[in-house]
Design goal:
This protein has 164 residues and is of the alpha+beta class. It has one domain: Gcn5-related N-acetyltransferase (GNAT) (Aminopeptidase). Helix content is 28%, strand content 34%. The chain is built from 4 helices and 7 strands; from the N terminus they run βααβββαβαββ. Strands 1-2-3-4-5-7-6 form a 7-stranded mixed β-sheet, sandwiched between helices. Strand 2 and strand 3 form a beta hairpin. The two termini are 25 Å apart.
């Protein structure tokens, strides 16, 4: 496995992974799979000077098996040193430490950036994600109850934070 900065050639693999979560889970509240332009915009929004990173993990054949990113938390300028983080791992690549390695690398990049705080929201229930966040020094902030509706069901979202 190799963890590298996301490049245009990784976008199809990133989209493939995310599509699984859009179509089959409430882990993301996207109801429709984003088009390729969305992923190009995400890549173009990278700005290490602000703590905006996009990294991928690839297997030995170069296939994207996971990605993590950080970006703008809110539009108001006072939030500029806070980054929202996310991570998605190919379902076939879960359970071998890939998520921790990938998210750990993202946290390392944030620690070297001007960012002060990393935040991440997690749809409940997701004990694996909660454990991942806590293992990397995130603390639970609180839970919004029934904040999103997907698959005709209300879902709670728990937020975590970590100083960087």
């Amino acid at each position: 496995m190799e963890i590298v900065a996301a490049q245009p050639e990784h976008l199809d693999g990133i989209a493939r992974i995310y599509r699984h979560y859009v179509e089959n889970t409430a882990i993301t509240f996207d109801l429709i799979d984003p088009d390729p332009a969305y992923w190009r915009e995400q890549l173009a929004a990278l700005d290490p000077a602000k703590g905006y990173f996009f990294i991928v993990a690839t297997d030995d054949e170069g296939k994207v098996v996971g990605y993590a990113k950080s970006g703008k938390f809110r539009d108001r300028a006072a939030y500029d040193t806070t980054c929202e983080t996310s991570i998605y791992v190919d379902p076939d690549a879960q359970g071998n430490g890939l998520g921790k390695a990938l998210y750990g690398r993202l946290i390392g990049l944030l620690e070297e950036s001007p960012a002060r705080l990393a935040v991440g929201g997690m749809t409940e229930p997701n004990p694996a994600s909660a454990a991942l966040h806590q293992s990397l020094g995130f603390t639970k902030v609180g839970t919004f109850e029934a904040v999103g509706i997907k698959f005709d069901k209300p879902w709670d979202v728990t937020w975590f934070q970590r100083p960087v």
